[in-house]
Write a structure and sequence with these properties.
Elements: E1 14-15, H1 33-41, H2 49-59, E2 64-67, H3 74-88, E3 95-98, H4 102-116, E4 123-126, H5 132-140, E5 145-148, H6 150-159, E6 170-173, H7 176-181, H8 185-194, E7 200-205, H9 210-219, E8 224-227, E9 238-244, H10 250-260, E10 266-269, H11 273-285, E11 290-293, H12 299-310, E12 316-319, H13 321-324, E13 334-337, H14 344-351, E14 361-367, H15 372-382, H16 393-397, H17 400-424, H18 430-434
Parallel strand pairs: 1-8, 2-7, 2-8, 3-5, 3-6, 4-5, 6-7, 9-14, 10-12, 10-13, 11-12, 13-14
Helix pairs in contact: 2-3, 3-4, 6-8, 11-17, 14-15
Bound molecules: adenosine monophosphate.
Adenosine monophosphate binds at residues 44, 47-48, 51, 70-76.
């Protein structure tokens, strides 16, 4: 969830030339044998792009600004040069890594430990939510590397007797855009004031926002810029967005987006058959040409739905993951994850319905208060922070009344369909059932085919 600030022009660091195409070994990058072995033991056969770009310049002693995301191998890109420098001049309280979240802090520490186990590196994680006393004791042992979230580290710098970072040789600011978006600016400033100016600094960020540029100017000296695309880079022409909304307004936001992007073909993913059916009814009640595709429909009905969609008689196809599998879904302009996928890999399948064969496409993922963790997993998998889809909240709120009425009708229709099914053991003609609202359903059963 990165802020979409623009890139400014001042104090542009020198750009590293693009790396050569052929895979290179860690040894080629200048990594010392013992650390090459550690990479090998972790199964890191060849360095990733960011490692190819950043490691040689970092080993030359330059400051680095790395535009790379989680999943790109960026932790190795800063950990290996730090460990190598530590081998050359062993020292306690040698490096500090600042990162925005506890989870990232532990992941980074695991990588330092894994890469540095054979050289006996000691790390400590200093994050909130953990008792400060045990952290003070850990700091008193003077680890080689501290991995910290800024708030708790400042707490220790101010309150833990005997602890200071006056001998620090390396500072890493990981996910700097997120650190700054989380309002850790003051803490970062405080930290910068109490560490030596004469140090090496690596700044990693997924996006180059104005705040990051400001930090770069304040904290880095003549840095080399290393920018890479991430490992799961989805096709370039796919614009992926999320919207973060309260779950009770999901329907209104859906209607808003369908209106905003009118004229496109949509595929909307729902998590259950029932919600697929309900949402299709709701949209029909609001005048959209929507058609459902789910597992409670026979294969023939599903194909029927699909054919209508393919023939462009319907512009919105609502589906569950299961129902859409194994079917030849045509290209769509916009994929909407109305219900977030519970398996993050399904996300890749879903958004793959658009931006095919060089065409462009959009995907919008609805994230409610209950979905944050799942969404973070998706971002981790694709190695990308998604931008928020721009919306006018007031306009969405103006829709709520009409949507509430359509919801009420949809619930009624769903109930009627259920009753009809039970009483006639009817295998449900979905299109027909949708027409119940119009009170003309009685005479429309003739179309049903096997
Ligand atoms: P990061 O972007 O640093 O969070 O790393 C993402 C994942 O990639 C981690 O699980 C690393 O262990 C792994 N990784 C980092 N470098 C390499 C590499 N050169 N080859 C294979 N996997 C790697």
């Amino acid at each position: 969830m990165a802020a979409g600030e623009e890139e400014g022009s001042a104090a542009e660091p020198e750009q590293e030339p693009a790396a050569e195409e052929q895979p290179r070994s860690f040894k080629d990058l200048g990594v010392t044998d013992v650390l090459c072995e550690a990479c090998d033991q972790l199964g890191w056969k060849v360095p990733t792009k960011i490692q190819i770009e950043a490691i040689p310049v970092a080993l030359q002693g330059r400051d680095v600004i790395g535009l790379a995301e989680t999943g790109s191998g960026k932790t190795g890109a800063f950990a290996l040069p730090i460990l190598q420098a530590l081998l050359e001049t062993p020292q306690r309280l040698f490096a500090l890594v600042l990162t925005p979240t506890r989870e990232l802090a532990f992941q980074i520490s695991e990588q330092f430990e894994a890469l540095g186990s054979s050289i006996g590196v000691q790390t400590t994680v200093i994050v909130g939510g953990i008792d400060t006393m045990s952290q003070s004791l850990a700091l008193a042992k003077k680890p080689h590397v501290i991995i910290a979230t800024p708030g708790r580290l400042v707490d220790h710098l101010e309150n833990t007797k005997g602890f200071n970072l006056r001998a620090l040789k390396f500072l890493v600011m990981d996910e700097a855009d997120r650190i700054l978006n989380m309002d850790f600016e003051t803490e970062v400033d405080k930290i910068l004031k109490v560490i030596p100016r004469d140090r090496k600094t690596f700044l990693f960020s997924a996006t180059m926002t104005k705040k990051v540029q400001k930090l770069q100017r304040a904290a880095l000296k003549n840095p080399v810029k290393c920018a890479v695309s991430s490992k799961y880079q989805t096709v370039e022409k796919l614009q992926q967005y999320y919207i973060f909304i309260p779950s009770k307004f999901k329907d209104s936001y859906l209607v808003y987006i369908l209106n905003e992007l009118a004229g496109n073909s949509f595929m909307i993913f729902c998590s259950t058959c029932n919600n697929t059916q309900r949402t299709a009814l709701l949209l029909r009640n609001l005048g959209f040409t929507a058609i459902p595709l789910h597992g409670q429909m026979s294969q023939n009905k599903r194909l029927g739905s699909l054919n209508k969609f393919k023939a462009k008689a319907r512009s919105i196809l609502l589906a569950t993951d299961v129902a859409s599998r194994g079917l030849d879904i045509p290209h769509v302009d916009v994929v909407i994850n109305f219900d977030i996928p519970t398996h993050s890999k399904d996300y890749i399948h879903r958004v793959g319905r658009t931006a095919r064969a060089g065409r462009s496409g959009k995907s919008i993922t609805f994230v409610t208060q209950y979905d944050v963790e799942l969404f973070q997993r998706i971002e981790h998998l694709i190695g990308k922070k998604l931008p928020a889809f721009p919306m006018q909240e007031e306009e969405v709120m103006m829709l709520t009344e009409r949507v509430a009425e359509a919801q009420r009708l949809a619930r009624m229709e769903l109930r009627e369909q259920g009753e009809k099914k039970r009483s006639r053991n009817d295998d449900d003609d979905t299109e027909e059932a949708i027409g119940v609202r119009n009170k003309v359903a009685g005479g429309k059963k003739k179309k049903r085919k096997a």
